[in-house]
Backbone:
């Protein structure tokens, strides 16, 4: 009989040592500044200090920058936040204080922030795990995802990303919204003509994503 494997409890990281406070302050000043190169440099310094997992202040400042204009920099921020929420392979985890501050801040995300996360996902589905890890920390994420996927004014790639996120996180409450959207898109497909190619592209792209997500949600319920 195989022995039951017991997951090791992550060791708690210590805070930033006082001798590194000046380095931390300089990194934060760069990160919150208006210059893109400085922000990139500042974030690199913060991550090198492991400050996002050691300092509640740094974790919340990163959370407040989820809507960072530069997509690559935003992705790095999202991955760093996911590292705080889900301890990595090094077996080290943030303190309860860091987790508490971060979850409080992420819990206040609204449509703009969720949309910014979906832009990362729409750019590359490779980052589904860290994006959904951050989204799942917000109790309002499901409602915002429903609103985004239902709005035909939003880019199709964003709506597809919303469907993927709903399925990955498992927002069961979104099932009714997705079924209504599926019926609406199916009816539009029946009424399409060669004169409406843009509608055809939207429907053809969205329908498979919605069906896939509904299947995932149904399996989760069974």
Residues:
């Amino acid at each position: 009989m195989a022995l039951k494997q017991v997951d090791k409890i992550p060791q708690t990281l210590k805070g930033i040592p006082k001798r590194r406070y000046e380095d931390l302050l300089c990194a934060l000043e760069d990160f919150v500044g208006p210059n893109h190169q400085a922000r990139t440099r500042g974030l690199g310094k913060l991550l090198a200090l492991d400050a996002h997992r050691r300092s509640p202040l740094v974790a919340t400042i990163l959370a407040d920058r989820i809507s960072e204009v530069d997509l690559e920099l935003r992705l790095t921020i999202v991955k760093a936040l996911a590292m705080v929420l889900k301890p990595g392979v090094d077996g080290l985890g943030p303190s309860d204080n860091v987790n508490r501050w971060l979850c409080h801040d992420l819990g206040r995300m609204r449509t703009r922030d969720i949309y910014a996360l979906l832009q990362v996902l729409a750019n590359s589905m490779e980052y589904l795990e860290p994006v959904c890890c951050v989204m799942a920390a917000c109790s309002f994420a499901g409602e915002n995802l429903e609103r985004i996927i239902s709005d035909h004014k939003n880019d199709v790639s964003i709506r597809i990303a919303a469907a993927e996120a709903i399925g990955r996180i498992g927002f069961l409450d979104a099932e009714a919204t997705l079924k209504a959207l599926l019926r609406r898109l199916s009816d539009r497909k029946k009424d399409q003509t060669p004169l409406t190619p843009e509608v055809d592209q939207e429907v053809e792209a969205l329908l498979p994503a919605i069906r896939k997500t509904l299947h995932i949600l149904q399996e989760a319920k069974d």
Summary: The first strand starts at residue 11 and ends at 12. Confidence is low (pLDDT under 50) at residues 1-7.
